[in-house]
Amino acid sequence: MASFNGKAARRSILRRVLTPSGLIELRRRRKSRGRRKRVEDDPELKLYARMLDKEYLHLGYFDDPTLTGEDISFGALMAAQARYGAMIVERVRSAGGLVLDGGCGMGGLLAPLQEAGHRPVALTPDRSQIAHISSKFPDLPVEHSTFEGLDTTRYARAFDTIINSESWQYIDLDAGLAVVDRVLAPGGRWVICDFFRETDKIDRAGHKLEVFRAKTAAAGWRLIEDNDITPNILPTLAFAHMLGRRLIAPLVDYGIEKLQLKAPGVHYVFEEILAQAGPRLERQLEVVEPQKFAANKTYRLFVLERG
Ligand SMILES: C[S@@+](CC[C@H](N)C(=O)[O-])C[C@H]1O[C@@H](n2cnc3c(N)ncnc32)[C@H](O)[C@@H]1O
Q: Which of the four pLDDT bands, split at 50, 70 and 90, describes residue 47?
């Protein structure tokens, strides 16, 4: 890899912000901002997929909730994710039936579902996930759609089980309920594993638990299982928090200091922007701080059936 060259960096910046062709390109890129919808190509999920090197994108299930971030390895995290996947597959109704994996991510559940004799249909709005799944499972039906946008006429009453494995938080509550209502077969089962909000103190990610309960009850759903698995996902948050604090934050500081040393001019141009990196990272780390998460959110494994 070429070493960092301050002079070349300065020239490259000037070319991009001072020449006519640079300015045209700058304008084009600024205009394209927001055109690419996150749900269609999510960079964070792509990052997790690369870090974990396996096909699960959820928080996993640790049997031992006392583990700290420092106790955990990537291997242990992947084993916890497989355990979480197995807990979902165990709850799927009758082998041989059609199962909708709604918000399937990189398709981690698909092979275990097939091995257990089920016929999964994968659904995701994300095009890189679609490309990955289509190449790994060329014969498996794949729906490139949001859950809310699924063709409910084509799949009317088709699924014995619907799974939302850490995807329900992204789906509009009312629209999602209407889809489940139309595509689940009579006597079918709905398995949701995800976090829900109990307060709005940290952020507004996840549905409010009490609203979810009220709306599903009003729509005639019976909760046949309600497992609070919050303690079992906390070690993953502790691991992410530890990596952020002990690896990413020092690496960011290191990069900024190196830039200041090697290219003081470039550092000066970006100094105010770079100064925002630390506080921004702090805010992101707050979201994965285990105690804060547990004080504001709850992670549930729900199994629901019709009245
Ligand atoms: C955290 S990942 C979980 C992936 C997978 N279910 C797993 O357990 O590994 C969330 C998934 O939900 C998908 N998603 C986001 N918005 C969605 C929507 N409106 N409808 C369906 N899926 C959605 C994402 O693209 C991603 O596949």
A: low
As a whole number of angstroms, the longest Cα–Cα distance in the chain is 70
The one-letter code for the residue type at 57 is L
Residue 105 Cβ contacting ligand 1 at under 6 Å: yes
| Structure confidence at residue 126 (pLDDT) | 94
207 vs 5, which has greater pLDDT?
207
Is residue 223 domain-shared with residue 268, that is, in the same domain? no
Helices (H), 63-162: 74-90, 110-115, 127-136
Say what the pLDDT of residue 1 is: 47
Distance 212 CA to ligand 1 centre (A): 18
Statement to judge: residues 195 and 271 lie in one domain:
no
Using CA atoms of 179, 184, 190, 194 in order, give the dihedral in degrees to the nearest 10: -20
Place of tokens 């970006």: 270
State whether 280 and 241 are in the same domain.
Answer: yes
Would the CB of 162 count as within 6 Å of ligand 1? Answer: no
How far is Cα of residue 11 from the mean position of the Cα atoms in its chain? 39
Exposure b/e, 22-41, CB count within 10 A at least 16 = b: eeeeeeeeeeeeeeeeeeee
- 104: its two tokens: 């399937």
Let me know if residue 60 belongs to a domain: no
Instruction: Give phi and psi for 142, each to the nearest 5.
Output: -125, 125
Whether residue 178 is predicted with pLDDT greater than 90 in this model: the reply is: yes
